[in-house]
Amino acid sequence: DVHPAWLPPAAFRAVGARRVLVLGDGLLTGTVRAEVEQACARHGGALEQDATGSPGLVLALSTAAPLAAPSAAPSVAAAAREVLAGQGGSAIGEEGYLLARRDGVTVVLADDPAGLLYGLFHVVRLGEEAFTGERPAEPHRPAARRRMLDHWDNIDVHPVMGQVERGYSGGSIFWQDGGPRGDLARVRAYARLLAATGVNAITVNNVNVHATEAHLLTDRLGDVAAIADEVRPYGIRVHLSVTFASPMRLGGLPTADPLDERVREWWARTTEHVYATIPDFGGYVVKADSEGQPGPFAYGRSHADGANTLADALAPFGGVVHWRAFVYNHRQDWRDRSTDRARAAHDHFAPLDGRFRDNAILQVKHGPMDFQTREPVSPVIAAMPSTRLAVELQVTQEYTGQQRHVCYLAPMWKEMLGFGPWGRDTDGSGDGSGRTVADVAAGESGDGGGLVAVSNVGDDFYWTGHPLAQANLYAFGRLAWDPRLEPAAVLDEWIDLTFAPAAGGDPGPLRRTLHAMMDGSWRTYERYTAPLGVGFMVRPGHHYGPDVDGYEYTPWGTYHFADRDGVGVDRTRASGTGFTGQYPQPWSDVYESLGTCPDELLLFFHHVPYGHVLHDGTTVIQHIYDTHFAGVEEAAESRRLWERAEPGDPALHARVMELLDEQLRCAEEWRDQINAYFFRKSGVPDARGRHIP
Ligand code: BDP
């Protein structure tokens, strides 16, 4: 029993009311057929058995017989054939499709079955609109080949992190009670939801690989194969997080040195067995030398050495290794002001550019720190032109309200993906290269590392705990497919698919409410939490709720340096950690200078006095007060709006209401603690005389 999310049966009404012809073979074409058949059974249409009728929708592989041999079906596939001819013989491309409508027939054409599936979901999104007027053939292709969700799921319940590390939606959809779930129907339903967004890969276990989970690579591989079987019909490949120490932990070798022949041989043999069991296995994900995980440093080897050993084992089978760049010293001496965690990934990896194999993908968190509400783009993204980079996002809301707060993340991702690491002309046309973060992830012709995100899904009825957090999962997939999409438009898609059926077709008033609650919710969250890009200030361990000094005197490298005179981290070249020097121009200078550093990142890059005046004319201290009062007001307004909303689902309404109560309580707690802290430190009262505890 699970919420249908963005695929309620009624979302298929327009498709299901048609006569539909599906042409082609293959597993995924079979999925398309089954989807259509189910929709037609419900909504009165029919799946055509051959190409002799007059369908309203044709979904066809370009190689399907009736298209290849025109005489086979003169009338039916005529429109499809014309569309194809209009292509001028050029390939539609892997996973891509052409969508067109002419002479009353809507046509989806694809070169491979995955494209047909994505095309079908496009038609579903359009609804009746897909069946009106004429539509010139539009090609659709994913920006990047890899669009992946990492699940930080444990098989055993971890004593501190629970079953899903940083999970806020109940247990794992894969694992339960120390083993695989008996019933994988939910996994199948999940794969279907993901396919409708464009995601095509999942990792089924935590990047922190504990004892039991390590065995998924060998004696528990059957459990992984079972998951692969469930998701394969939806075009999704399974990847596995593995521990670098596998050759020792599983293979009984005395070493995991990546250059030791026995170790290389062990990886090769083990990987061969993986592919014998799961022929379309995607590859490995590795967190090494980070937060206690083993890695190549123990053997005096580089991370390129480590990644390449696994890449070599995977290469014969077309697999890839996602090697994470999240490597830093989490036991640093907090008394030494010169260490800077923000520098770590660039310090470690930039010198290795060009030394990774082709099938080694360096997976870089989008910011230099750790999924904070506001961070600059990681300088690593601009520093490794000869390496395939994947950009990693966090859909699970570890630092953005833990799925108790409404925080629609697409605007943050969009800003990050659209960022030009090499600068941009003032007219927006771009610098010399004009490339964005999204371009780097996509790579030339889509063969870059793509986008990866930490999933927010669990065994909760709504999948994501907070029903509105479904929008983040949906938006991740859509932006991974096409980073140019607008967050508000993606939200519209999600609202229409999810709520239109229950709202009798017109989610109009609800649409307005949800936009008012969600469009700006990331900025609202930012306002009532840590100010001006300084980050953290969360309760240690679980990271929920405010604790300004929670991490200040610990070895984690996440400091704000507030004292009676000022606040912020000096990361300049002139007087600080030199982090600004990791950026190419113009950002290196833009961030270095107080005059040009964007306000929202001020305290990330600079330590300033409380009286420092921001670009909008407010002082830092007054900005802190103003934003914290405003943020709480906005949260309260959200709650008021939802009170009157009618989503057509009383249980969902009640769940969101409850969570908004908690959000408001927590936002007030943040406001009071942050305001009180900085009032006491600075002694500067609020210019508007509001109450500060
Ligand atoms: C941090 C999380 C931690 C993860 C780590 C990672 O707090 O649970 O293990 O990221 O990305 O944000 O590996």
TrEMBL record:
Q: Which InterPro entries match?
A: A-glucoronidase_C_sf, GH, Glyco_hydro_67_aGlcAse, Glyco_hydro_67_C, Glyco_hydro_67_cat, Hex-like_dom2
- Record domain Glycosyl hydrolase family 67 C-terminal: where: 464-690
Q: Which residues form the active site?
A: 291 (proton donor), 370 (proton acceptor), 398 (proton acceptor)
Q: Which GO terms describe its biological process?
A: xylan catabolic process
Which UniProt keywords are present, listed alphabetically?
A: Carbohydrate metabolism, Glycosidase, Hydrolase, Polysaccharide degradation, Xylan degradation
- Give the UniProt entry's GO cellular component terms: extracellular region
User: Which Pfam families does the entry mention?
Assistant: Glyco_hydro_67C (PF07477), Glyco_hydro_67M (PF07488)
**Gene Ontology MF annotations:** alpha-glucuronidase activity; xylan alpha-1,2-glucuronosidase activity
Q: Where would I find the Glycosyl hydrolase family 67 catalytic domain in this sequence?
A: 140-463
What is stated as this protein's family in its record? Answer: Belongs to the glycosyl hydrolase 67 family.
Specify the protein name.
Alpha-glucuronidase
Per the UniProt entry, what species is this protein from, by scientific name? Nonomuraea diastatica
Q: What is the lineage of its organism?
A: Bacteria, Bacillati, Actinomycetota, Actinomycetes, Streptosporangiales
